[in-house]
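User: I'm curious what two different proteins look like when written out as structure tokens. Can you demonstrate?

Assistant: Sure. I'll show them one after the other, since each token string lines up with its own sequence. Here's the first protein:
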Amino acid sequence: ICLIHDPEIIIFDEPTNALDEDGQIFFSQLLLELKDQGKTILVSSHDKDFLNQVADHIFVYSEGKIVKELEHEHEVEA
């Protein structure tokens, strides 16, 4: 539903929660296609594998503050 009006910025909160493996693959491909279209996508997620697949930048938050920024080729640290 959030894509109906072709927004420039899209925000997802835990989008892979409760998706099966096929759903996760579909959603990852969708995000990569949207990114290729120039969309800005913000994702809040605890799914480290998913973030490493789709993110250009990963920000680690603690107590409401950014404590670390990682590039997509790095593992997300706890």
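Here's a second, unrelated protein for contrast:
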Amino acid sequence: MSRHLPNLLSALRLLAAPLAAFLIAAGDDMAALLVFALAGASDAADGFIARRWGHTSRFGAWLDPAADKLLMLACFVALYGVGAAPLWLTALVVGRDISLAAGAVLAKGLSLPLRIAPIRLGKACTLMQIVYLGLVLLLLAVARDAPGLLVAAAIVTACITVLSWLAYVQIFLRVLVPGRRTA
């Protein structure tokens, strides 16, 4: 059973995404923050368990980042819907993720030698997006207003998101140019 625990935790995180979005839309900010925090804890736990005891799988390698992305995208869209996240940042995050998924599908369809793996800048982007979402949810939950802090966090999140996007585009373009080293 413990062998499947990382995938079970990732699957629960998939279920947490629509729940968090629903709670945000319903105005239950403390519950949304709690679901988001528990999802983050489950992400840390499934990664630790998978690495510590070698309970990794190809399915888990796909499910874990998919659950993370769904949670973040659902939260960004829901927070935009209630006016707590700006459209420009939400569109940037969603656009980046859609283009990365489309690039992976295109590479697979064209049989390009593209190895799908996270890069450090991509991990930094994910971390900053989590920090931003956590900050927004925390401020909503405690009914505090910090517009300067939110703008600064949005700008930093946007910059890292763009840099990450460009890094992945560069990797994709490298596999399109014949004779170049594959990514």
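A detail about the second structure: The two ends are 36 Å apart (CA to CA).
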